[in-house]
Amino acid sequence: MAEIKYNKIDSFLKDLQSSANRSADAGPAPQPFVYLIFGEELLYKTAYKKLLDILVPPASRSLNYEPVDGAGDSIFEVIERVNTFSLMSGRKVVALLDAGLFDAKKDAAPLLKKSRQAYDAGNLGSAATHLLRMTALLNLDFEDLTSAGLKKFISAAPALLDDDRWLADIVEYCRQSGRDAPQAADSESALLRAVEKGFPLGNCLIITTDTIDKRRKLYKTIRDTGVVIDCSVPKGTRKADKDQQGVVLNEITKALLAESGKTLAPGAFKALYEVTGFDLRTFRGNLQKLISYVGGREQITRHDIAAVLKRTQKDPIYAFTNAVTEKNVGDALFYMNSLMADATGSMRPEQILVAILNQVRKLLRVKEFTATDAGRAWFSGCPYGQFRSAVLPAVLEFDRELSQALEHWQARMTAEDQGRQEGTPRRSKKKKTKVKTDLAVVKSANNPYPVYQMFLKSDRFSVEELLTAFEHLSRADLRIKTGSENKKLILEELVFNICRAT
Known about the structure:
Strand content: 5-15%
Shape: globular
Radius of gyration: 28 Å
Number of strands: 8
CATH topology of the domain at 1-232: Rossmann fold
Number of helices: 22
Mean pLDDT: 81
Low-confidence stretches: none
């Protein structure tokens, strides 16, 4: 029936909505009965949500909407559901989400990588989906999901197979949630036959996936009998590819700015694109950071982008410590390897250890502040504007009291030292000396945004977890300085222990 590009979907959905309104009294329209949405994950999930809102309004979803995880032996379940009449009136929608129908053997390593990334982000459900898709692709079972077992089938991702723990965690999650390893079956042919036959009037199937093969008969059949929504974006460097990438990023920018009431100064979009590149999730996340950073100010400038984002490129140690404090194991290991392998001046393991130590100390100082009466002004999810007006003044006072205590202690120690040197204890005049310390929460009152970020990160840890992190740091320091073990492996173990704190 139709093949629609992502930038035309709003027009298509508008016509679909009009058609649905006209046929409301006459019952559900017979066509289209199958939709395939593929491409960039962020885009196809947005398109899917818009389509679902029209086909099955939220008020009807409890009875007329049945989502099915696309991993494993789900195709036959989907076919059964979409061929079963709904008990209630109105359209029935069955959705096969994140399907692996078009996966090929070459997709095994990328699926394994996606699984690890989701696991590191704490999303076990998504991690299991990607791993089960890979398992079905290679015709494996749970016993094969070990580093040694997978190395027989996958050679393109050796770094992911140096550790069995994450695989074991996902397998255990699958078993506890009743998600079995899929058995070999010709599910694509079964779905093809079902689509060719058609579904009961009023029943509709939606399929979403990130991978596609337009040469497959299943794809061509869905295109000819239903609707295909193409959310793919070319990743090349040709001008035509760059232009399409720019269009998509512009749409994301306009939506976020309209939602927040912000604007971009001339040249700011280009500066943001240069920092981020074409990575939709990173671009969206960076723009959201900028919206939070400017607070009550309406316009985002190039200076804001330089202040918030460019430091990550120029200062990899910041990117590394940021990943550790966000409990992002994958990014932390990536930046750590980059720091240790930098040809222009790699960092020693001792320096990386100290960088982690400084972050843990800062997080513990934040916890110390939030435990005080003044610290109650902070709460999880506190907006940046409220942080600056209500929390920051209390933090500055907290730091000032620390500075005064250190000055008093230094003056007292100086007086005692002078008394011992002269042989007779006596009081000395107090000298007004500014004590420098890295224990202050606020490094610069003129740049409070990094402090705000540190408070957000502190919510990821409990005091007990931070104290345990000190113990891990102490043991790692002793092993690095006195043992003959591989120092990189010691640091990797340290990162895992801190980021996996529960």
